[in-house]
Write a structure and sequence with these properties.
Distance between the termini: 94 Å
Helix content: 25-40%
Number of helices: 6
Shape: elongated
CATH topology of the largest domain: tt1808, chain A
Radius of gyration: 26 Å
CATH architecture of the largest domain: Alpha-Beta Complex
Structural class: alpha+beta
Order of helices and strands: HEEEHEHEHHEEEEEEEEH
Number of domains: 2
Largest sheet: 6 strands, mixed
Strand order of the largest sheet: 1-3-5-6-7-8
């Protein structure tokens, strides 16, 4: 009797041989690029202990992979409960394959994209179901409508997240999705962990921290080696003295 072959669909968020999405076209903006890379690095380090978190930027966000009319490309996105390897293989975030929209999107202002971030992308991300949409403008509001702004998705539409403007110039808002405060401070965006009571380290601070840890490890290893050498020398001397006493 002939048997019927049953084709198993790939697990959600996985494709047997995914065709990578093309890289989105970008208008060169050195300041914007530096900040995007920094934010990705900071958040990747913060969530490094979790294997179901994707932090990325500069790729397309689409409902369907083959719909070229979908041209939104977040500067930075965070998604929880996903398969990062499948998203990387796609070279973009395809909601229909991943099974859910990103939980967080951040756009960094530039001269050429400011108005699009505030209007077009805000409506687009709401339509995709992105839980939170944040905008950061290092100029303090020259390109975006504000230095820092965030929206939370409520019943299919965005409602503003409260932003605090401190007397010393610190502007900040809390992201329930990330569990972090986003802080605009003299043109820099820092992520503050209210549970730990500290800012997440920047790439430069991480580098200095790793260098300090490596130096401390090398010193500890050198001390241990010196102690071992001294111990072996003492044991050798003790054996020598015992031999002399036995003669």
């Amino acid at each position: 009797m002939a048997t019927k072959t049953v084709l198993r669909a790939p697990p959600r968020g996985e494709l047997a041989h995914p065709e990578p999405l093309p890289n989105p076209p970008r208008t060169p903006d050195m300041q914007q690029h530096i900040q995007i890379v920094a934010f990705d690095s900071i958040l990747q380090a913060h969530f490094a202990q979790r294997t179901d978190v994707q932090v990325c930027g500069a790729g397309y966000l689409r409902q369907a992979a083959d719909n070229r009319a979908e041209r939104l490309a977040p500067d930075c996105l965070v998604a929880f409960g996903v398969n990062p390897a499948a998203i990387v293989a796609r070279n973009g975030y395809v909601i229909g394959e991943v099974g859910k929209p990103p939980d967080f999107v951040l756009e960094v202002a530039s001269r050429s994209t400011g108005r699009r971030d505030d209007i077009v992308k805000r409506a687009g991300y709401a339509g995709y179901g992105v839980g939170e949409y944040w905008r950061f403008d290092h100029t303090g509001g020259r390109y975006h409508e504000a230095a820092l702004a965030g929206d939370r998705l409520v019943s299919g539409g965005y409602e503003p997240i409260g932003i605090n403007d401190e007397p010393g110039g610190l502007i900040w808002g809390h992201s329930p999705v990330l569990g972090l405060n986003l802080c605009w401070d003299e043109g820099d965006l820092r992520f503050y962990d209210p549970v730990a009571g500290a800012y997440l380290p920047t790439p430069a601070e991480l580098g200095a921290q790793h260098a300090a840890e490596r130096a401390a490890r090398l010193i500890a290893e050198a001390c241990a080696a010196a102690e071992r050498t001294a111990r072996l020398a003492a044991e050798a001397e003790l054996r020598r003295l015992r031999r002399l006493q036995g003669e």
